[in-house]
């Protein structure tokens, strides 16, 4: 018998408890093991007394730790007290499953080392892709591959907002309001819309993919709060869509890592990932591109990944936990490959700006005047690295006549 305790009884905790109870017979038939949900840790027992499993609720973590529980599932979210509880659980030789991206991005290396030292497993599949199985395929199925690059839509909130702006011509504010009304966005959406959530997930994924430590705070991060209807107007005019992509790739002198709004071809796989869905494209040197897609959040999608991690521990009790490499990667924040760019320049001297662009960029294609207002110049600039692009735009950036410059990388 495998005894399981859950820390947290919110959306994911409720879903996990339901999947455990629902699948006991099926799991026993497949594995020969019986599952027992022994405890659920909550802050306030009274608040949850009307829910299922009320008889096994507790507000005392130490009692769980002293009990003969085999696996502790952490779905509380946030760093504290999750970090303290997981650390104690591993040190007490309890296997742990977590869906906590914040925890793994900040303390993953330390916690995996503690698990390894104590001969237990720390599984965290749900921390990156929610319901999308990505870590196990990356660590096992693709192990023969050297990972070349990752391109991913890792945040359902921002993808929902951008999808509404693209398909229904909504403003950012209106799309965010709908996302909040439907429960896809928090009352304070900053972690999602500023790109931090996707950056944390990218750091975990890239640390495993490249076997080097990727600190999420070193990643270049841009959110979607400055995206407006005109950005989509210009993107659509050239057959593009706008997505918030988490990107990393191996380079000769380090790893490029970025979370930023980019333009993608409207008929591409990533463009077709709509609303709250997520997608991850892994490129291996042997297999080429492999695409994983599905729901990146929600009660049962995330609980599905958590349950998969529980099953993995039960079926492989002697398997050692993976470890993150302690060697920090050198992070590149500029895109050093030749690419196309959509450029918007708000200026008081339109003629001078046009002259500057056509003189500095031999492959510069200006938008027709009827598409853009009289105080703005919009262009597609082809085959430029980000470093060269920035250098050539510096004269305009320094000019008193330039109010702002927006640029969107084209990812193929």
Automatic annotation (TrEMBL):
SUPFAM superfamilies named in the record: Glyceraldehyde-3-phosphate dehydrogenase-like, C-terminal domain, NAD(P)-binding Rossmann-fold domains
One Gene Ontology biological process: methionine biosynthetic process
Keywords: Amino-acid biosynthesis, Methionine biosynthesis, NADP, Oxidoreductase, Sodium, Threonine biosynthesis
Reaction catalysed by this enzyme: L-homoserine + NADP(+) = L-aspartate 4-semialdehyde + NADPH + H(+)
One term of GO molecular function: NADP binding
Family, per entry: Belongs to the homoserine dehydrogenase family.
Official protein name in the record: Homoserine dehydrogenase
Protein species of origin: Clostridium scatologenes
């Amino acid at each position: 018998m495998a005894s399981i305790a859950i820390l947290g009884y919110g959306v994911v905790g409720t879903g996990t408890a339901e999947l455990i109870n629902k699948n006991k017979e099926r799991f026993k038939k497949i594995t020969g093991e019986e599952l027992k949900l022994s405890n659920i840790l909550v802050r306030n027992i009274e608040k949850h007394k009307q829910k299922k499993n009320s008889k096994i609720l507790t507000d005392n973590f130490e009692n769980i730790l002293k009990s003969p529980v085999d696996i502790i599932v952490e779905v509380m979210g946030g760093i504290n007290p999750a970090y303290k509880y997981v650390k104690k659980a591993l040190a007490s030789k309890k296997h742990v499953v977590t869906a906590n991206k914040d925890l793994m991005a900040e303390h993953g290396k330390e916690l995996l080392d503690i698990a390894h030292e104590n001969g237990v497993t720390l599984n965290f599949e749900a921390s990156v892709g929610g319901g999308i199985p990505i870590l196990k395929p990356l660590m096992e199925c693709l192990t023969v591959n050297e990972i070349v690059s990752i391109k991913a839509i890792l945040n359902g909130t921002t993808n929902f907002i951008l999808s509404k702006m693209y398909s229904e011509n909504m403003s950012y504010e209106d799309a965010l309001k709908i996302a909040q009304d439907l429960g896809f966005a928090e009352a304070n959406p900053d972690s999602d819309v500023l790109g931090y959530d996707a950056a944390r997930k990218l750091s975990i994924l890239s640390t495993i993919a490249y076997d080097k430590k990727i600190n999420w705070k070193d990643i270049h991060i841009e959110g979607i709060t400055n995206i407006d209807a005109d950005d989509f107007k210009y993107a659509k005019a050239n057959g593009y869509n706008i997505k918030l992509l988490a990107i990393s790739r191996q380079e000769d002198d380090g790893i490029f890592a970025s979370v930023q709004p980019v333009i993608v071809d409207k008929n591409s796989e990533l463009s077709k990932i709509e609303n709250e869905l997520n997608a991850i494209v892994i490129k291996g040197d042997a297999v080429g591109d492999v695409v994983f897609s599905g729901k990146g959040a929600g009660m049962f999608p995330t609980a599905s990944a958590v349950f998969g991690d529980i099953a993995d521990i039960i079926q492989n009790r002697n398997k050692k936990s993976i470890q993150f490499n302690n060697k920090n990667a050198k992070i590149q924040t500029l895109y050093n490959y030749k690419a196309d760019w959509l450029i918007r320049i708000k200026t008081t001297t339109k003629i001078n700006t046009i002259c500057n662009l056509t003189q500095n960029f031999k492959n510069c294609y200006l938008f027709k005047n009827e598409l853009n207002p009289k105080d703005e110049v919009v262009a597609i600039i082809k085959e430029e690295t980000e470093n060269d692009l920035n250098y050539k735009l510096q004269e305009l950036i320094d000019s008193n006549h330039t109010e702002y410059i927006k640029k969107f990388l084209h990812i193929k």
